[in-house]
């Protein structure tokens, strides 16, 4: 079987026949180990291509950037980008799963993991398209970037509704919204605790 051909058909089907593609992907019944390994690979690929996009954006803006911003952006290590993106994906998997379960969703954890993994695959394809367009028109590339994320969000909503047996994709969108709010609140509390801990340590020192 042509793996690349199958992947391309699945990517195209995610737009043209989202529900059917979702059922097909869930029907593969991949193990958690396989899904996590694929997630790691996609995290690395998306980080690398995003760094290239950032470089193109900085180069296209040039003198319009605030002093020192371009240098500061270039000093962040790729490994840091990978860790941050990977951590967010892991949090998203758990948040989507348990939020959906709390809303009487019937899907398994592997389905949530597949959903986030496939989101990363679609993001990678979108990044490739944006990269090609930005070489010709940075403005059009930026619009494609925003539009692409909107389309991917709609696809994820449909995937979640198929996975958990919801009657409408709006329920899947609700899961996404609540999960995102939960992640933001959790990260905010964590940062506050880290800040308080750092302040106490500094006072004791």
The SSE order reads: HHHHHHHH
Q: In the residues, how many domains can be counted?
A: 1
Helix count, DSSP H or I runs of 4 or more residues = 8
Major sheet: none
Computed Rg: 19 Å
Query: Distance between termini?
Result: 64 Å
Give the low-confidence spans: none
Query: Considering DSSP H and I runs of 4 or more, what fraction of the residues is helical?
Result: over 70%
Number of strands: 0
The protein's oligomeric status is single chain
Categorize the overall geometry.
globular
Mean pLDDT: 86
List the helices and strands and how they pair.
Elements: H1 3-16, H2 18-26, H3 32-61, H4 69-75, H5 78-102, H6 109-134, H7 138-164, H8 169-204
Helix pairs in contact: 1-2, 2-7, 3-5, 3-6, 5-6, 5-8, 6-7, 7-8
Molecular structure report:
With 205 residues, the protein is mainly alpha-helical. It has one domain. The chain is 85% helix and 0% strand. The chain is built from eight helices and no strands. The longest helix is centred in the last third of the chain and has 36 residues, at 169-204. The termini are far apart. 25% of the residues are buried. The model has no long low-confidence stretch (mean pLDDT 86).
């Amino acid at each position: 079987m042509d793996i690349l051909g199958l992947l391309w058909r699945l990517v195209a089907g995610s737009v043209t026949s989202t529900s059917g593609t979702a059922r097909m992907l869930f029907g593969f019944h991949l193990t958690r180990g396989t899904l996590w390994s694929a997630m790691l690979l996609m995290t690395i690929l998306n980080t690398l291509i995003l760094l290239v996009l950032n470089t193109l954006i900085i180069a296209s803006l040039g003198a319009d950037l605030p002093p020192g911003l371009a240098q500061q952006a270039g000093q962040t290590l790729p490994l840091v980008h990978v860790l941050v993106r990977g951590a967010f994906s892991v949090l998203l998997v758990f948040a989507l799963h348990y939020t959906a379960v709390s809303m009487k969703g019937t899907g398994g954890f592997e389905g949530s993991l597949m959903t986030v993994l496939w989101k990363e695959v679609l993001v990678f394809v979108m990044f490739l398209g944006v990269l090609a367009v930005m070489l010709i028109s940075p403005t059009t590339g930026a619009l494609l970037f925003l539009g692409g994320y909107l389309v991917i969000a709609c696809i994820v909503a449909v995937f979640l509704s198929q996975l958990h047996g919801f009657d409408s994709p709006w329920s899947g969108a609700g899961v996404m919204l609540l999960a995102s709010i939960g992640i933001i609140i959790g990260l905010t509390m964590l940062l506050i605790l880290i800040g308080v801990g750092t302040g106490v340590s500094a006072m004791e020192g």
